[in-house]
Design brief:
- The two termini are 17 Å apart.
- This protein is mainly beta.
- The chain contains one helix and eight strands, in the order ββββαββββ.
- The protein is elongated, with a radius of gyration of 18 Å.
- The relative contact order is 0.23.
- A hairpin with a 5-residue loop joins β6 and β7.
- Strands 1, 2, 3, 4, 5, 6, 7 and 8 form an eight-stranded antiparallel beta sheet that branches.
- It is 9% helix and 45% strand.
Amino acid sequence: MPIERGSAFLLKISDGAAPPAYQTMAGLRTTQLSINGEAVVVTNKGSGGWRELLSGAGVRSVSVSGAGVFTGSAAEARLKAHALSGTLADYELSFEGGERMQGRFLVARLDYAGDFNGERSYTLALESSGAVAAL
């Protein structure tokens, strides 16, 4: 797989319509994706002292975080509305190689910051709810 630019790792939020249209979150400078899985340990006396895990069991989740400069875009307004109401929304992650992932996420954290003589910035954290599909 060739090296990909980080600027092509985009976070997009759905407009809520059916079928959904996705709009890129403006101003994001950094984006991070974590795929998490909790293991179910089935180690027993017959395991010979080695840990054994149950394949396909446990809880899987996807976490997304990002930081950027506030631009006042419609996508940022939708994100803020979902953060304030605690509602789930559809998001899409896209990568330079054409890979995409879609799923429902909850805004777990949205922070705004600003200096007297600088731009207003924000950081966000999203947690998946349900399956996240690789497209």
